[in-house]
């Protein structure tokens, strides 16, 4: 059953994407004058029934295990996602476009994910922006009678004083551009590439405005220079092996800023003109922020703005500190945190409190390489209240530097499969991962995980 282990998790996200694909197939093959959203609903239910039937057959034949409670919650999350995505896909045929907005849909998904899967707020960007956008969109609908989906002549707006709408649209501008500018600032990318990109974005944003009336050749030159330096930055950083995916997110944000400001230019916003087309700014930011959230998850990116750094110091383990570890973390941690000639153990301390530790020892490789030594990380742990603050990375980096100075050619460790954050950390620190099953004699069980190794 090993190859089906993550099947329920995969299916939960398949449920999300079913409605739009079913809609596309129904549009292709529907010949009678039937309502497309009704037919798509029937097809969607049939597909879900078939999937359920196949899963049931596989479980009774012991080909697939019965989902545990966590997997059941994941499947329920997928079914709820299937429902909300269905309503979003068919909002126009069902005349729900002013109710079922992208802001409401994503908020529902975030809330359901929080209560069903993780009682922990992540994706702060969406949690901040979506309620604000939903409030502004609702206010706009109450004032004008039209929402974003009504643009293009499908709705005749109510008469509202221009100054009132201009203030509302100005709020959209301040929030969207202000928030993205703040996120770019938090990168503090004050090297040549960051300053060059920000400068070109600012200059282009100024010259494309109607009130400046700049020559098109100047705007074209700035645009070409902007693209050239972005590509050059990627080339240089990849060749010098200093590229990180944070660079990609940085350019996504600065490019989005330029797109938003160019839309303001189209609307003549800075000379006092604005209409309902300004709502597109919120839609763009929502989709881009949602895309960034997905990229950060897939590529294991932690933006500088999302990480609060703990104010800690690194110290070499002493007997007194080892006894503190026993008192606060238990006997197992105490036994693994050793002191010796071939052992290097470090602790992270904040306000006289041990918040993390690592212990590594050297050992020879197996034959025929028994003359070659390696460093093996015996234990690494960070207090749960201090995780994702750079502590584990610092402990590992300090350990790597120590053994590199000792002439040790490689460092190795092992993480069980359930330590998802640890595995993501090893990958982010450029360790090579090898799936491995180990046997624990004391418990007589096999544990799946990864050996991780890095050349020093």
Question: What's a concise summary of this model?
Answer:
This protein has helices at residues 7-29, 36-60, 69-89, 102-116, 124-144, 162-187, 192-207, 216-239, 245-266, 280-298, 319-329, 331-336, 391-405, 420-428, and strands at residues 313-316, 343-350, 353-364, 373-382, 410-416, 432-440, 445-455.
How is this structure best described in words?
With 456 residues, the protein is of the alpha+beta class. Among the domains are: 139-306, no CATH class; 312-455, Gcn5-related N-acetyltransferase (GNAT) (Aminopeptidase). It has 14 helices and seven strands. The protein has helices at residues 7-29, 36-60, 69-89, 102-116, 124-144, 162-187, 192-207, 216-239, 245-266, 280-298, 319-329, 331-336, 391-405, 420-428, and strands at 313-316, 343-350, 353-364, 373-382, 410-416, 432-440, 445-455. The chain has a seven-stranded mixed beta sheet, sandwiched between helices. A hairpin with a 2-residue loop joins strand 2 and strand 3 (353-364). The longest helix has 26 residues, at 162-187. The model has no long low-confidence stretch (mean pLDDT 88). It comes from Candidatus Xianfuyuplasma coldseepsis. This is GNAT family N-acetyltransferase. Keywords: Membrane, Transferase, Transmembrane, Transmembrane helix.
């Amino acid at each position: 059953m090993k190859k089906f282990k993550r099947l329920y998790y995969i299916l939960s996200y398949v449920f999300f994407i079913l409605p739009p694909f079913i809609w596309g197939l129904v549009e292709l093959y529907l010949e009678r004058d039937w309502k497309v959203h009704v037919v798509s609903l029937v097809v969607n239910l049939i597909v879900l029934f078939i999937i359920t039937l196949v899963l049931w057959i596989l479980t009774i034949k012991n080909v697939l295990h019965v989902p545990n409670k966590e997997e059941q919650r994941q499947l329920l999350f997928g079914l709820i996602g299937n429902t909300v995505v269905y309503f979003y896909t068919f909002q126009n045929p069902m005349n729900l476009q002013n109710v079922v907005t992208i802001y409401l849909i994503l908020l529902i998904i975030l809330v359901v994910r929080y209560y069903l899967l993780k009682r922990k707020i992540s994706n702060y960007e969406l949690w901040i922006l979506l309620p604000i956008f939903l409030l502004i969109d609702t206010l706009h609908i109450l004032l004008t009678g039209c929402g974003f989906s009504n643009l293009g002549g499908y709705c005749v707006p109510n008469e509202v004083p221009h100054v009132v709408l201009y203030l509302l649209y100005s709020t959209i501008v301040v929030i969207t551009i202000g928030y993205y500018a703040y996120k770019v600032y938090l990168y503090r990318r004050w090297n040549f590439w960051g300053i060059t990109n920000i400068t070109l974005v600012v200059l282009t944003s100024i010259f494309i405005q109607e009130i400046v009336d700049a020559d098109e050749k100047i705007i074209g030159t700035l645009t070409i220079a902007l693209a050239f330096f972005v590509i050059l930055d990627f080339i240089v950083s990849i060749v010098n092996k200093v590229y990180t995916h944070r660079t990609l997110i940085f350019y996504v944000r600065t490019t989005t800023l330029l797109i938003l400001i160019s839309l303001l230019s189209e609307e003549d916003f800075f000379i006092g003109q604005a209409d309902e087309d300004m709502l597109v700014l919120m839609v763009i930011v929502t989709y881009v922020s949602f895309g960034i959230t997905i990229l950060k998850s897939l590529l294991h990116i932690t933006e500088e703005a999302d990480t609060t750094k703990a104010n800690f110091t690194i110290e070499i383990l002493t007997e007194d500190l080892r006894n503190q570890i026993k008192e606060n973390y238990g006997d197992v941690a105490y036994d693994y945190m050793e002191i010796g000639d071939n052992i290097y153990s470090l602790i992270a301390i904040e306000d006289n409190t041990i918040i993390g530790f690592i212990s590594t020892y050297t050992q020879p490789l197996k034959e025929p390489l028994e003359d070659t030594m390696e460093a093996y990380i015996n234990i690494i742990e960070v207090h749960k209240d201090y995780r994702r603050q750079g502590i584990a990375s610092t402990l590992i980096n300090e350990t790597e530097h120590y053994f590199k100075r000792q002439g040790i050619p490689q460092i190795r460790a092992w993480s069980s499969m359930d330590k998802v954050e640890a595995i993501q950390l090893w990958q982010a620190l450029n360790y090579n991962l090898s799936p491995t099953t180990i046997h624990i004699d004391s418990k007589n069980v096999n544990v799946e995980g990864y050996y991780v190794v890095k050349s020093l």
